[in-house]
Amino acid sequence: MTSATKVNPDLSDERKKVEFDVEEFTNWYYKGAENVAEKRFLENFFLSDPELEDKVPTSYLSHKEKYENAVRKAVLVVNKIKELQADGRGGVDIYMALLGGTLGTAIFREANPITVHFVMFLPAIMNHGTSDQQAEWISRAWNCNIIGTYAQTELGHGTYIRGLETTATYDPKSKEFILNSPNLTSYKWWPGGLGHTTNYAIVIAQLHSLGKCHGIQPFIVQLRDEETHMPLKGIKIGEIGNKVGMNTVNNGFLAFDNVRIPLKNMLMKNAKVLEDGQFIKPKSSVLTYGTMMFVRVVILKDMASYLSKAVTIALRYSMVRRQSPIEPNKPEPKIIEHVTQQYKIFPAIAKVIVFKITAEFLWDMYNQVTHDLDKGDLERLPELHAISCCLKAVCTNEAAQAVEICRLSTGGHGYLNSAGFQDIYGMVTAAQTYEGENTVMFLQTARYLIKCWEKAMNGEKLTPTVSYLENFIKGRNSRQSFQNSPSGILKAFQLAAAKKIAESNKHLEERKKYLSPEEATNQTGLELINASELHCQAFLLQATIEVLEDSTKQTSLQLRSVLKDLLELYSVDLALRYTGSLLEFANMTSSDIEFLQRSLEALLKKLRYNILGIVDGFDHPDQILGSVLGTYDGNVYENLINAAMKSPLNQEDVNKSFHLYLKPFMKSNL
Ligand SMILES: CCCCCCCCCCCCCCCCCCCCCC(=O)SCCNC(=O)CCNC(=O)[C@H](O)C(C)(C)COP(=O)(O)OP(=O)(O)OC[C@H]1O[C@@H](n2cnc3c(N)ncnc32)[C@H](O)[C@@H]1OP(=O)(O)O
Ligand SMILES: Cc1cc2nc3c(=O)[nH]c(=O)nc-3n(C[C@H](O)[C@H](O)[C@H](O)COP(=O)(O)OP(=O)(O)OC[C@H]3O[C@@H](n4cnc5c(N)ncnc54)[C@H](O)[C@@H]3O)c2cc1C
């Protein structure tokens, strides 16, 4: 991955000090040399296409130009994917790479305007459609003959989906549903691509039949004419305006005025309406929520890749930027020599690996559970729901925080759009809200944990992600002293999570004596969130310990040792961030904290000369990073001035505003 330009000697010197084989790490990280070759092939295939390159940085485009440029590219990208598939190449992974991920964001800078078509519209038809409905819609959608979105959230309700107000009323005479938006708060609001891109949508609406409401159900609805793209009769549609980030996505609003759709357009794999209007209940009412779960699982993978870009930029920059002598009369060091700077970046690098490992773990679990669901087995659905909710919350919260710290670690230059952090942050922080606001996600997990606690107290067997509660109840682990090792810290977190769940449950039960169960839950919300977060942190650490142990058996000693250091750094940092809970619940003492602090400092020192190999090993070409501060050659000052010269204002020496406003203003006092 060498650059044609001369590499900044500060960075090439650093590379000489890396003790392990960077390519070996890359192959380990992407699970095999074949995957790395495929990744590089795809990156080259897409990024070498001049049509996908921006002549002017997209941040200088207007809102409308940004959107139009993104749609142009989306079409090119899908056509290129089809080209690859015609050559017998690629499956779902290509979509993963291009709809989100690092390659997709390199092309779009913000996001792909048709991501929701692939990530929600299509999966919703697959998950909720009968085989007849799949036969009718899937191939048209897959070939993009129709483009759809997932219209669930409304102006008035996003979280509490049982409160959605759009209605779909069945008319047995015409065998049609009539869709209506009874008031302003029932307008659909936020669906990706809804504004001007899509012509179909999965609409989540309250089903009414034979005078009764049967709760929310998914309907497939045509919104625009397939030829003219004009909104169909009774449909009011538009875009909701520009946002913190993801401005290429064209999130929209939508209202219905007596829009009729045929009976067969309700997705009926789970619940059904018969021709006479009779409603057949689904096996489980939560099956309607399946599409959301799929996206929560996918989000985790994306967090690891977005964060891997941010840390690469921050670390490379820190190895060429020199500022502030540490010893008087000595030259200014690379800013990475300031220990506080190391602490801003190294733990975030460890997080990339932890999030990626856990995302893969969760992906396998998701596939297993959906396979079971297809056979009618719902047993592990609550567990998957619970773990995916808290992981989505912890990983998006921590990624957003870490990206912001990376930006701050690059000082003033990080505030420039050309540094690349703004686009990454825009993507990551959006995920804190979409697909379930994070506080609400923590509360969903807590609801499950409390149930598990009650089961464990009754001696019932628990599923693997919560089995540590059984150990706690049987008295195992509870009297152990705190141990400063990844597995010791894991035990401490499991103990803290178990005790916090127990304590929350105790307070919940106390409150239930004088409050309704729901209000008691509300009053206990702060503790429940805390319990959920501890549970999630324990899970992240456990999954990483297990996977690292297994997957590094075949690696070189040098690589294994660096990965072990990173795991230790991750766990020590985690323990230090949660001292409050560990002191309260996990037999930690103040001397343990002192020891952890020293371990942290020692680990930063130990990793100092190997850490560049890790970010180089993430293998992001400059185009993927999209940052003047993170290029492989480290020539940041040349990059900064070159990027500044691309500003439209720098294309002329004098701007017309001088003659129009400044000059008359400045001369007016004469
Ligand atoms: C096909 C191939 C294609 C190839 C593709 C290849 C892949 C390519 C990938 C490329 C990368 C792309 C990157 C991503 C970009 C994304 C774009 C952005 C998209 C953003 C989209 C959105 O933003 S779209 C809207 C999401 N909007 C929410 O997310 C609402 C949250 N709000 C709730 O989710 C509920 O409203 C809430 C709170 C549960 C209360 O609902 P409620 O009141 O009914 O629930 P209760 O609390 O009473 O819970 C009742 C019982 O349901 C249980 N349960 C609840 N949910 C469950 C569930 N999901 N599964 C199972 N069980 C569930 C619960 O555990 C209870 O169980 P129990 O009774 O046994 O305890
Ligand atoms: C970039 C982006 C893309 C999106 N794409 C789509 C899409 O394609 N399709 C779609 O349908 N939707 C989409 N959404 C909408 C998104 O799913 C919702 O915004 C999200 O679910 C949060 O709902 P809300 O906006 O109603 O927030 P609210 O629920 O109003 O949250 C506001 C505050 O209230 C708190 N709160 C709410 N309920 C509770 C509770 N029970 N307990 C404790 N606190 C609570 C929250 O924690 C938060 O602090 C998108 C949103 C964004 C930002």
TrEMBL record:
Species annotation: Chironomus riparius
Family indicated by similarity: Belongs to the acyl-CoA oxidase family.
Span of domain Acyl-CoA oxidase C-alpha1: 289-450
Entry superkingdom: Eukaryota
Pathway field: Lipid metabolism; peroxisomal fatty acid beta-oxidation
Matches recorded under SUPFAM superfamilies: Acyl-CoA dehydrogenase C-terminal domain-like, Acyl-CoA dehydrogenase NM domain-like
Binding site for FAD: T153, G192
Alphabetized UniProt keyword annotations: FAD, Fatty acid metabolism, Flavoprotein, Lipid metabolism, Oxidoreductase, Peroxisome
Catalytic site: E435
GO cellular component, one term: peroxisome
Protein name: Acyl-coenzyme A oxidase
GO term, biological process aspect, one: lipid homeostasis
Main localization (coarse): other
Acyl-coenzyme A oxidase N-terminal domain segment(s): 21-147
InterPro entries found in the cross-reference section: ACOX_C_alpha1, Acyl-CoA_ox_N, Acyl-CoA_Oxase/DH_mid-dom_sf, Acyl-CoA_oxidase, Acyl-CoA_oxidase_C, AcylCo_DH-like_C, AcylCoA_DH/ox_N_sf, AcylCoA_DH/oxidase_NM_dom_sf
Domain Acyl-CoA oxidase C-terminal as annotated: residue spans: 486-667
GO MF annotation list: acyl-CoA oxidase activity; FAD binding; fatty acid binding
Cofactor(s) this protein cannot do without: FAD
Compartment(s): Peroxisome
